Amino acid sequence: MRLSSLLRSAGRSLLPVNSNVTRSHTCGELRLKDAGSTVTLLGWLSFRRLNRFIVIRDSYGSIQATIKDDDEHSKNLLAHLPYESIIRVRGRVRDRGEKHRNGKMETGDVEIDISSLSVVNEARKDMPLLPDAKAHEQTRLTYRYIDLRSPQLQSNLRLRSSVIHSARRFLVEEKGFVDVETPTLFRRTPGGAAEFIVPTRTPAKCLAYSLPQSPQQFKQLLMVGGIDRYFQVARCYRDEGSKLDRQPEFTQLDIEVSFTTQDGLLDLLEQVLIAVWPEHLNRVKPSAPFPRLSFADAMRDYGVDKPDLRIPWKIEEVKSRIFEKLRGGNEDPSWTLRCIVARGSAEAVSKARVREWKRLVEMNYQSTNFAVLSKNTKKKEGGWFNFVSDEEIEREFQLAEEDNIVIAWGAPSKVQYTLGQLRGLIGEANGWRKREEFSPLWVVDFPLFERDEEGKLVSCHHPFTAPIQEHEERIEKEEKLDEIRAQHFDLVLNGVELGGGSIRIHNGSMQRKILEILGEETGEMTHLLEALESGAPPHGGFAFGVDRLISILAGRGDTSYGIRDVIAFPKTKEGRDLMVNTPIEPSREELERYGYEVVKK
């Protein structure tokens, strides 16, 4: 998308970006209507040809400028000037004429006849990269301040600013919310992800803060304090490895409301998403209400709790007994065999891809045996199974030339996991996950608890989520805990979890009981428990993942678009900032200040 188009969609093209600065115009705004005007431009030297034609670029676009034949001073300045040097150009805007227009530039109908040119700041001669050149991601992250000049990152960061601005305007001006900042120096939180700690200079004691995973407890305390409609663009932290859609520090649009219900919250959150939707994507703007799917139905039909509904295939039972020999000697009554009939995906499947999918799926202990069968792979691999004919399979599943069938067998949970992953992988290879479509979905009715690998009961999301009203008595009696449903909901967009929320526990005794069931020390939560016992209103909230939302919008629905391209200064997957070379080991003086010493294992 062109940068000027984004600026127009964000309402920025009419703003006075040339006030309080020494330029008269930006490099991207001049058109035929400006012919004859005298202008002053400042920007980066982006291109030169024949020591006569140059392209000057700023944050808003680029334009060609020409040097007069007798202007030896300007020619000498440019002769050895490195690209990305800052220059000042003054001259008259001229119509390039029909023969010389450049349709690839938004300013391609005009050019600047230079009357004066000066160098404001000369760039280094050995520039490590140029903004419009392809480079390895490690190089881009190391020299991020140069990479940020690229049209794509300029567009992404301005899109991010526009979306956040729209959210603030909607919540404050149309919904009466209060923007409240909460502390980032907090204390450790029971359960959840690993947290970063911040040591303090406390004599004879080893005391530390924790950086919050979210403002969860603070926003609940604000509800108790009467700030009944709170929001915040919050920085959050998790001491985990970075992934394509996750960073150790990230941004949430955090929302909490008193005296609400789950239906009321979902309606509000749909309004928020529609309100921040960028104008240039109006053609594919989702409409409310969004469809809802229970957690159980999502796992049954799609094998994941965040399905991409653009992919049209579901997991199905195999009622025929033609694959019965796959059971072998397994007598487990829960053994199952299920499939996905992936219509129209034959061209997306190859032997190499199936091997790669097998590697990816088997990286998780939840996987099981599977086979991808089609006429396409049959021709390459020489048949499907010895005990069943090709004709039987084609007849049973009504396969056409362009179809695949994916079969998995074994323990039910492993079958669902395997087919869920393969549905996404084949859908991506077939182009479904790159389509310029947006398919939002609410996943509801999650379990309140789940079991970890050791069989211990843990919160499915966090210990502050309320159970559905019909299951509250089970908490008190500690009965059928694995079957209790939560008032939790996730917003899924194109197979990406855009955020999660819930109705919270507002009763102190119930909150205390759930912490005890989970084996958490209630002393860690005295402040919250006492607040809930001080007249806490019923409340609930939600947090949008800003980085994920912007990446989906910037990618125009393409879920392979990484969040590192919508964050100004991101970390690598190892959690490092290559530009400033951090994290680093603390100095001896720093350790002594806090009373710490490093013991290397």
TrEMBL record:
Q: Does the keyword ATP-binding apply?
A: yes
GO biological process: one example: aspartyl-tRNA aminoacylation
Domain called Aminoacyl-transfer RNA synthetases class-II family profile: residue spans? 157-583
Classification via PANTHER family: ASPARTATE--TRNA LIGASE, MITOCHONDRIAL (PTHR22594:SF5), ASPARTYL/LYSYL-TRNA SYNTHETASE (PTHR22594)
HAMAP family, per the entry: Asp_tRNA_synth_type1
Origin species: Pristionchus entomophagus
Task: Keywords in alphabetical order, please.
Answer: Aminoacyl-tRNA synthetase, ATP-binding, Ligase, Nucleotide-binding, Protein biosynthesis
Q: Which GO terms describe its cellular component?
A: mitochondrion
Q: Its family?
A: Belongs to the class-II aminoacyl-tRNA synthetase family. Type 1 subfamily.
Protein name according to UniProt? Aminoacyl-transfer RNA synthetases class-II family profile domain-containing protein
* Gene Ontology molecular function: any one: nucleic acid binding
Lineage, top-rank taxon, reads Eukaryota
